[in-house]
Every structure is written in C-alpha cells, then in structure tokens.
Amino acid sequence: MIGQKKYFNNLEEFLDTSLQSFQVLYIDLNNQRQLIGDEGASSLGSGLGKCSNLSNLILYLEGNQIGDKGTLSLGFGLGKFTNLSNLTLNLGLNEIGAIGALGLGFGLGKCTNLSNLTLDLGWNQINDEGASSLSSGLGNCTNLSNLTLNLSKNQIGDEGASSLDSFLGKSTNLSNLTLYLKWNQIGAIGASGLGSGLGKCTNLYNLKLNLDNNQNKRYQQLKLKCLKSKRLVALEIQYW
User: Fold this and answer.
1) Between 157 and 172, residue with greater pLDDT
2) Is residue 127 part of a domain?
3) Does residue 73 sit within a domain?
4) Taking Cα atoms as reference points, which of 172, 176, 166, 186 lies closest to residue 234?
5) Would residue 231 count as lying in a domain?
6) Domains contained in the chain, number
7) Sign, CA torsion 224/219/159/131
C-alpha cells in the first residue's frame, strides 16, 4: 500500500517485497554478521531504483566492505529518486574511492528535490578527485536547506577541499550545515577555498565545521570568511 512506512534489516527480505509501494523506507544493514559487499550493494541499488515513489529514505550501510562497484550501483539507484526530499545515507567505514564517489555524486545530483540530507562517507578512501566529483553532483541539489556531510578520515587535500567552493556557492537555500573534514590533508589553500564557498551561503543560520588533524593552523581567516553570512547565528569551528 502506498504511504506505508517500512523497516528492513535484511537485504533479501527487502528485495522480495513490492518495491514500488514505498514512500518512506528505512533500511538498516550496519555491521551485519554477513557483510553485503559490492554484490549486495549492487542488488540493493537495483532494488532501490524500483522504488519510484520514495520521498523519505534512511539507509545505513556502515562497515560492509562496499567498494567502488557497489557504490556506483547505489548511485545509479539514487538517481531515479526524483521525488526524494529527505535522505540519510551512512556509508562510513567502507572501501569507497574516487570512482564510487563519482557514481554517488552523479546519483545525488539527480535528486533535485532534496531538502534534507545526511551523508556519512567517513573512513573511506576518497581523494581529491572523488571529493570534486561528489561536490559537482551536490551542486545540483539547490533546494537543500539542511545538510550534514561527513568526509572525515579520507585522503582529501587542498584541491578536494577547494572543490566544495563551487557546490557551496550554489547552496543559497542552506540554513543548517554540519561539515566534518577531520583527519585529512587540508592545508591553507584548501581551507581558503572552503571558506570562500561558505561565505557564499548567505542564508546560513547554523554552521558547524570540524577540521581536526589537518595541516592548516590559520583558521582565523576561515572564520572571517564564514562570518560573511549575515544571518549566521551559531558558528562552531573545531580544530587542533
């Protein structure tokens, strides 16, 4: 029945249902005893692509040995969610690299009606190229008002951090932003580019930025750029 909320913690059970019926879907496959890997993620992506009525999706896939191949399939499935407005996607502690980030960015870029997004890609293998591809896709999500993005413990340097400038510059509707970039290799150039993008988010009310364990210590300049958002009420920048 369309409109029902459905929860799954078993991949096979989800794939055996009438997939077109869901508007709200919650799938929790975090740290399964039997990891789904690329093969399971590909099957999941194919199944999700048939859920054409989805408006709200929560998907927990942390610690499942998912690499680029599985992430590409997930991105392809996400690209069919033209009505999706709320998405929580946890892909932390996997094996995702630049190609997987490219596929994920492509899929998210098709979700142009997203207003609330929580995306956890911490503890993967995403480099500057992957961060740039992800930023390019997110730049199409111009209706975002609330975003939490975790890219901690990847391989992102100045180029990747600076690429967020183009995405953030298009995110004029963002009011709440939490950005985790700790444990990367971001220096002064990357922080400057990131600050330029944040300064273009003129409707931000709340900003939380975590840059712990990176290579730049001149965070006062970054703070000044963030303060260009005239509506900013709460600003928190963490670093050490």
Assistant:
1) 157
2) no
3) yes
4) 176
5) yes
6) 2
7) negative
**Per residue in 113-131, pLDDT tens?**
999 999 999 999 999 999 9
For residue 234, name the pLDDT band (cuts at 50, 70, 90).
confident
- Same domain? 3 vs 100: yes
The DSSP H or E segment spanning 72 is helix 68-78
Same domain as 236, residue 178: yes
- As beta bridge partners, residue 146 has 116, 176
Flag whether 144 is in a domain: no
Q: What CATH number is attached to the domain comprising 27?
A: 3.80.10.10
Identify which has the larger pLDDT, 33 or 136: 136
Asked whether residue 74 falls in the same domain as residue 173, the answer is: no
Task: Determine contact, residues 136/107, Cβ cutoff 8 Å.
Answer: no
- pTM of the entire structure? 0.94
Burial string for 101-136 (b: 16+ CB within 10 Å, else e) reads: bbbbbbbbbbbeebebbbbbbbbbbbbbbbbbbbbb
* Tokens 């929790």 belong to residue: 28
pLDDT of residue 188: 87
Tell me if 142 sits within 8 A of 173, measured CB to CB: yes
Domain extent, residue 201, equals 156-240
Residues 163 and 96 both lie in one domain: no
Cα 198 from Cα 231, distance rounded (Å): 13
Q: Which two tokens stand for residue 23?
A: 């508007």
E strand residue ranges, the chain: 5-8, 24-28, 56-60, 86-90, 116-120, 146-150, 176-180, 206-210, 234-238
Q: How far apart are CA 138 and CA 61, in angstroms?
A: 20
